[in-house]
Amino acid sequence: MIEEKQFLENKHPILIKIMDLIVPAIDDLPGAGSMGLLNELKILCKKYPKIYFSIRRIINSIEIDPISRANGSFIFLDIDRQIETLKIIELNLSDDFSILINAIYSVYYMNKDVKKRINWKYNSIQPQGFEILPWDESILVEIKKIKPFWKNPDN
User: Fold this and answer.
1) pTM, two decimal places
2) Rounded mean pLDDT of the chain?
């Protein structure tokens, strides 16, 4: 969707700031927005349009906020006002805000540096590297020929 790509490209400074506010820097690990996770978030938006539309509604709400507009943009507000703005949006667009937070957490906790910092030991279900054979559809040929044993409630 071209409109989606253009919107996220044009609004990325605000989105990066939101990501940094939701998951701020800790020790040597930058905040979620500063880690360069925007591309992963865009991939989620492409895969799940619901995420994109939630982000769009949130950013549109930020842009019509009178205080953000009076200061030129949300990104020019001091951090306390940015947080206050997000709290108001969380109250008014709670479903969208929840979707945004889950999306940010998803891309953040899949990052290898974050996994390393939290000491997440992820082992493959195939640690020896054995490939799983593709499913053989022919196994079901005979079963598919059998008529259903249940009654259809519509008949």
Assistant:
1) 0.71
2) 86
